[in-house]
Design brief:
By secondary structure, the chain is of the alpha/beta class. The protein has one domain: 5'-nuclease (Rossmann fold, 3-Layer(aba) Sandwich). Helices cover about 50% and strands about 10% of the residues. It has eight helices and five strands; from the N terminus they run βααβααβααβαβα. It has a five-stranded parallel β-sheet with strand order 3-2-1-4-5. The model has no long low-confidence stretch (mean pLDDT about 95).
Amino acid sequence: MKTRIYIDTSVVGGCEDEEFREHSTRLMGCFERGDYILVVSNLTVQELAAAPEDVRRHLSQVPEEHILVLQLDAEARDLAEAYISEGVITPTMRTDAQHIAMATVARIDVLVSWNFKHIVNLQRIRGYNSVNLRRDYPVLEIRSPREVLYDD
């Protein structure tokens, strides 16, 4: 079974950012080839709808058969609220909590982001996973694109 990688908008936007371009573009290429399954959510799709065309085109280049789209359902909403109520993340960052929750509920292999403040952050990762384990969910791997790519 192919690895299922949930990405947030920072990864797609990273394709157009000098600092993140190399790794974001390589990862999106892996999705285009079908090396991995690209997992996005309805939130990611909504966020990208407001992005410039040069950002959106990176997602549109991935064939539909390589994409899985998750919906924010009641279970994921409840888990996101638990992250907030337990102080892992603030209510102003609810969307970030919802990304984590959807990937957790769907038992995705790894969530990938360039958001080092609210997502790819050791203290927060431990917090998210502490909540997950207490609620009988598995640990969620959370990494940057750089960490999931193999060097050739």
